[in-house]
User: Fold these one by one.
Assistant:
Number 1:
Amino acid sequence: LRRFPLRNVRGVPLMEPIAQNWDSISSFNPDPSDILISTYPKAGTTWTQEIVDLLLHKGDAEACKRAPTVVRIPFLEIVTPPPIPSGLELLSQMKPPRVIKTHLPIQLVPEGFWKNKCKVIYIARNAKDTLVSYFYFDQMNLTQPEPGPWDGYIHKFMKGELAWGSWYDHVKGYWEEREKKNILYLFYEDMKENTRREVERIMRYLDLSIPDDVITQIIKLTSFKVMKDNPMANYTFIPKSLFDHSRSPFMRKGEVGDWVNHFSPEQVKMFDEDYERQMKNSNIPFRTTI
Ligand code: A3P
C-alpha cells in the first residue's frame, strides 16, 4: 500500500484514484429520496452519519448494527484499496433512500443531487479544531499524503493544499448556497453545546417525527464515549494497513477548543491574520470555544 498523491480536479486537490474515476463520480445520479451528508474532513461527519441513520431507523440500534458506518453509508467519491468497496460500488448495491457521505466542495457535488432536489446536510467545524483533527487523521490514515511536521501542516491547510482542498472555500461555498439549495447547515460546536437541539433540527429537516424518549436514546448511542467503543462506528474494523489507530485513534478527543494545546501564540497570530483575509466578507458564525 502507498499513500496516494493528490491530483488536481477542477482546481481541487483530490486523491489520485478519485481523480482517475472522476467522470463516473461526477455523473452519479442519486434518487430524490437519497440524503447527502457533506463536510470538509474532520467536521463531525461520522457523528452526523450515526445520528441520521438512527433517526431514519427510529432509534433502533440493531438496525444500524448490520454493517459498519462506512459500509452502510457509502462515501460517494472514495476509491480505496480492497477490502473496502468503492463508494459507487456500494451505492449500486443499495436501494434508495440511501444516506451518502461526501467531502466534495459544493461546485464538485454531482449535478444530480441538485436536479433531484435531494436533502443535503452540511456540517462545519471551526478552522483551528478542524486543522488539529486533520493533522492527527493524516498520521493514521495511510492512504492520504504524509502530514509532515505541524508547522508546515498549518501552512498547507491555509493554502488549501490538503486533500479536498481549501477549508475556507469549502465552508463558504455551502454557506452561500444554503438557502437557494435548501441545505441544512450545521456546526460541530452547536452539536457539542446542545446535541438535542441539533438532532431535532435534523429530524425536522428530514420530515421525521420521533418521540422524545427515542431522541434521548439516539443522543446516548451517538455520544463520543459510546461511539468510541462501538466497532461499527469507530473504524477499528478497517485493516491496520489503511488506518493505524496506534498512531492516533479515529475517535480521538471529540472536543471544542483542543487547538489551544497545539498552536503557539505566534502561530495563532499568523493563522488569525490570514483567516481575516480569507474569510473577509463572510458572516459564518464560527466559534472556537463553547
Ligand atoms: P477529533 O480529532 O477532534 O477528536 P469526521 O467524522 O468528519 O472525520 O470527524 C472526526 C472528528 O469528529 C474527530 O475529532 C472525532 O473525535 C469527532 N467525533 C466523532 N464522533 C463524535 C461524537 N459522537 N461526539 C463528538 N465528536 C465526535
Number 2:
Amino acid sequence: FTVFEALGSKLQGVFDRLRGRGALSEADVNDALREVRVALLEADVALPVVKDITAKVRERAVGQEVIRSIQPGQMVVKIVHDALVDALGGKDAAKGIDLAAASPVPILMVGLQGSGKTTTSGKIALRLRGRERKKVLLASLDVHRPAAQLQLETLARQAEVTSLPIIAGQTPLQIAQRAMETARGELYDVVILDTAGRLAIDDALMDEVAAVKAAVKPHETLLVVDAMTGQDAVNTARAFNEKVGVTGIVMTRVDGDARGGAALSMRAVTGAPIKLLGAGEKLDALEDFHPDRIAGRILG
Ligand code: GDP
C-alpha cells in the first residue's frame, strides 16, 4: 500500500544504520529514536500517538539488555515493530467483518461524501457473496442524492447481489425498515445499508444516521474514511464514534500517495479498530487489515 511507503523508507534508513552494529550506546538508541519520532510526525501520525510509540520504545530499548545484546540493532527494530503493531490495534485486532448474529445481519455504512462509502459497500457485498457465500441485500438510504441510489444499484449488479428496489419519496428510516423486512421475508444473510454522506460533519447527518441505527440495531457500523485526508480522517472518525458509535473503520485510498500516519493514529484517537483497507477503485480491491503485516511492511 503506497500510503506507508514514505514512512517505511525513512524508518528503514534509520534501522539500516543500526542493524549492522555490534554494540549500541544509550546515545545511539536516543539518536535513532529522535529520527523515528521525526519520521512518524512527517508521516502525519498524531502527536500523542508519536509520543506513546517513542516512549514505549525508549522504555524497552534503553535497557541494558539491548545495549549488551549481540545484535542490538535487530532488537531495536523488533521493539519498534511491536510498538507499531500496538498502535495499529494490536496483534489480535481486526478479525474482519463480524457476522456472528442472527440473519439477516444488518451492516450500517457511514462516512462523509466522497470517502468511498458506496464503493466500499459494493466491495463488501462482493466479498461476502463470493468468499463467504452469503446472500446479500444492498440498500441505499441516500435520499439526498438520487444518483447515489443508482450508483449502488450499478455496483450491486457488478457484485452480482441484489439491491433493494428504489421507491421515490421514502425516508432513510423507511428504506432501512423495508430492507430489513425484505431480508427477513426472502431469507437474506446480510443487509448492507449505505447511508447518505455530507461534505462535512453536521448535526443533521448525525441525527439521520443515529435514527437509522436505533431502528435497525446494526451488528456492525462501519465508518469509511479516506486515507488521503490524513489527520482529518482521524478527526472524522472521532466525531462519528462519539456521536453514533462505530464498530470498525474501513480506510480507503491506501493506494494513493497520502502519508499513512492516519492509520497509526486511528485506534488510539478514536478507540475503533481499522478492519479493512480499500486499495483501488475495482470491487475486488478490498483487503483485510493485519497490524502485524502492515508493521512488517513499514519496517521492510
Ligand atoms: P461516497 O460518496 O463515499 O459513496 O464515495 P464513492 O464510493 O462514490 O467513491 C468516490 C470515488 O472514490 C469513486 O470514484 C471511487 O471509485 C473512488 N474510490 C473509492 N474507494 C477507493 C480506493 O480504495 N482507492 C481509490 N483509488 N479510489 C477509490
